[in-house]
Amino acid sequence: MTADLLAPLDLAFWNIESARHPMHLGALGVFSCHSPTAGAHAADLLAARAAAVPGLRMRIRDVWLPDVRFPRDLAATRLPLALGGAAREPAPDFDPLDHVRLHAPTADFQAVAGRLMERPLERGRPPWEAHVLPGESGTSFAVLFKFHHALADGLRALTLAAAVMDPMDMPEPRPRPQEPARGFLPDVRKLPGLLRGTLADVSRALDIGASVALSTLGVRSSSALTSEPSGTRRTAGVAIDLDEVHRVRKSAGGTVNDVLIAVVAGALRRWLDERGDGSAGVAPRALIPVSNRRSRTAHPQGNRLSGYLIRLPVDDPDPLTRLRTVRTAMDRNKDAGPNRGAGAVALLADHVPALGHRLGGPLVSQAARLWFDILVTSVPLPSLGLKLGGNPLTEVYPLAPLARGQSLAVAISTYRGRVHYGLVADGRAVPDLDRLARAVSDEVETLLAACRV
C-alpha cells in the first residue's frame, strides 16, 4: 500500500475537529443471537478480520512537503495547494486489538453509544473503532462502528464495515484501470482544457458563495437546534416500515427521500411544541449531503460530497403541505444540480490551500451555524442481509457528527424493509432526545392518516 495525500474536503474534516467536536461518523448495528457469548465471539471475529482489510490499516499524518502521490481528482497543476497537508499511509504498527473493544453487558445500546460517540478517535493511529456491546438478555448484541470523516464518508464507511462482516457470495469487482504516472508539470496539450476548467471552478465558487450569503437572510431557527458545545452526546434510534413510507409516497407524490425529510420536519414541529419552545415561524435550514462518488473505477477513499440546502417547513401545521414544500425544494435543488447553490459549499474546500485548512480549521468550524441549522443525511445500505458470526443484523442506525454550535443531526438508512433514523444530539442541549424519536414515529402515523382522508 502507498500513501495518498488527503483531498481538500478530507483535510477540512481533519482540521476542524476539536475535543468537543469529534468529526467521526458512526453506525450502531444490532444483531440477534442465541448465546450470551455471541458478543465476545463477534469481537474476536472483528479483530481477526480487520487485520486483512487494507483500508482499516491507514493512519493519517501531517505532510509539509508532498512526497506522496496525488489522489486521482487532484491535478498535478495544483501542487502548491498540497503544501502543509496530510496523507493516508499504512500504519507500521497496526494492531486490530487496539481498535476492537468488548464492553460489559447492557440493557440500553443507545445510552452506551451516546457516551462512546463523545470520545474523539486517537489521531496517531488508524482513526476508527468497533465497540461490541453484549445485551443483558443474551438474545442480542450491538456493534458501534466509528470512522473519522477524514478517513471515509458514509458510503466508504459502509464498505469498510461490510468488509468485516461474514463473507457473502458477491460478483467479482471489475479491475480498476492503472493510473498513468504524473509529473509535477501538466501536459501542455491539456492546457486549454485546464484553463477552461479553472475558469469554470472560479465561476462555480462565486455562485456557491453568493448562494450561501443569500441563504442566511430571513432565517428563523429554534434555540433547541443551536447551542454552545458541551462535548456530551446522546443518541436515539427509531425504525419504521418502508411499506408505510411507500404508501405515503404513492398517495401524496414525491420520492421516498422527500417523505423521509418531511417526517423530520413534522417530528421537529411536534417536538418543539411539546417541549414548550414553539414551532411558529420556525423554518430551519437543513443540509442534505449528496454523494459525488463515481463508479467503482473512481478512487475509493475519502469524501466525495456536495449537498442541497432546504428550509424545513416546521412552522406549517398541515402534514401534506409540509411534504409538498419539501418536494418542491428538493426538485429545485435537483434541477440546479449538486455542484451549485448554498448546499454545495463543501466544494469550496477544493479552492483552499492545504495550509489554509490547517490554519483556518477552527474558524471554519465556528462558521457551520451560519450555513445550516441541522444535518439530515441518508446512508444507503445493501438489500442483502448481513451477518456477523452467523448472527443476523436486524437493525442499523447511522450516526452523523455534530457541527460546532448545532445540537442535533439526523441520519437515515433503509435496510431490509425498514427505515432507521439515527439521532445524535448534544447531551446537555437535548436531554429529551427520546421524545424526538417518538415524534418521528408519530409523524409517520400522521402522514398515513392524512393520506387516508
TrEMBL record:
Q: What InterPro entries does the record point to?
A: Acyl_transf_WS/DGAT, O-acyltransferase_WSD1-like, O-acyltransferase_WSD1_C, O-acyltransferase_WSD1_N
**Keywords on this record?**
Acyltransferase, Glycerol metabolism, Lipid biosynthesis, Lipid metabolism, Transferase
Pfam family of the protein (one): WS_DGAT_C
Pathway of action:
Glycerolipid metabolism; triacylglycerol biosynthesis; Lipid metabolism
* Catalytically driven reaction(s): an acyl-CoA + a 1,2-diacyl-sn-glycerol = a triacyl-sn-glycerol + CoA
Which superkingdom does the taxonomy of this entry point to? Bacteria
**Domain (O-acyltransferase WSD1 C-terminal): residue spans on this chain:** 302-446
* Class in the EC hierarchy, top level: transferase
Positions of the O-acyltransferase WSD1-like N-terminal domain: 6-259
Q: What is its EC number?
A: 2.3.1.20
Q: Which family does it belong to?
A: Belongs to the long-chain O-acyltransferase family.
Q: What is this protein called?
A: Diacylglycerol O-acyltransferase
What organism is listed for this UniProt entry? Streptomyces yaanensis
Q: What is the lineage of its organism?
A: Bacteria, Bacillati, Actinomycetota, Actinomycetes, Kitasatosporales
